[in-house]
Amino acid sequence: MQNLASHEDWKSCFSEVAPGLLLFARQWVQSAADAEDIVQEAFVKFWRRNHKIENRALLYAAVRSIALDFIRRDSRRARREASAISETDEFIEPQFEFEDDTQRALAEAIDVLPCEQREVVVMKIWNELTFAEIAGVLGISQNTAASRYRYALAALRNTLQPR
Amino acid sequence: MNDFSEIENELRKLRPAQPSPILFERIEEAIAEHCRASVSDARSGWWRFTETPYKWGFGLAAAVALILFAAISMEHQQDGGKEIAQISRESETAPLRSSAKESTSSDKFVPAGATRLVYNTRNEGLQFARGSGQPLRRLRYQTRETWQWRNPTTGASLRVSYPSEEVVLIPVSGQ
Questions:
Q1: What is the ipTM of this complex?
Q2: Are the beta carbons of A125 and B8 separated by less than 8 Å?
Q3: Is B7 within 8 Å of A99 when comparing Cβ atoms?
């Protein structure tokens, strides 16, 4: 019961990883509230099982698994919401805090990356996972993880290069 | 320094949106609830762990005691003996010595005493018996019963001890 014994520590752990986890969860869900639900479930599960926070890969694997369950379970609702959003051009909560137009463009470019590349970039840049950890989360080889990362960065660089 | 260092730096400058303060409250609540549930599970887990061996132990000890007692009684009847075990209904621990005459046979055990120690009494509240309007107080006694036999010739003794539980309903009269 290591985590329970020092259960106040969860706040500092969570503060550190929460923004990255939410960004990771937002890949699969449109709303920030749904992403928070997923992150909450994953983090509480992780904490209950007394995993050490150093085993971040397990935490991301839990977020991914819960998010995939969520969209399977909620696919009908998600389709309804997606069509409503496209019809009304509803405001979607931003995933980043922008400081300028360059950052906004970069965020938009990240959004249009293929999912398998985007998740690698999110884990690598904003969660500072190693390729070995990313490979563990996704069940792929380290080389594949590194290669997806490079493809993603190349795509982003091309998007941002002045035409 | 790889070719992507510039874009990596740009990406790192981009800060992900912060979680809402409500998320912290929700997680705190979920973790606290889990702590409460773990304590409760630990208690019930202990009960589950102890309850079954307790029942088995009780059953086995009672069976052994009955068999021994029946065997000894039959032997005494055959010999015309009159030894009877004395059962104390009080909670004292001192065994009662049988005043029966000692046997001369070397393989004969005679009852030497019995104790019944009540180590816990629990008041389980009032209840109404079927068809009765009078309330009954339900008391559960947890006891340990010990039976002893002694071979007067060899001095050998046999002792069987087992836990038991008794529920007693006491009528409650209104004032």
A1: 0.78
A2: yes
A3: no
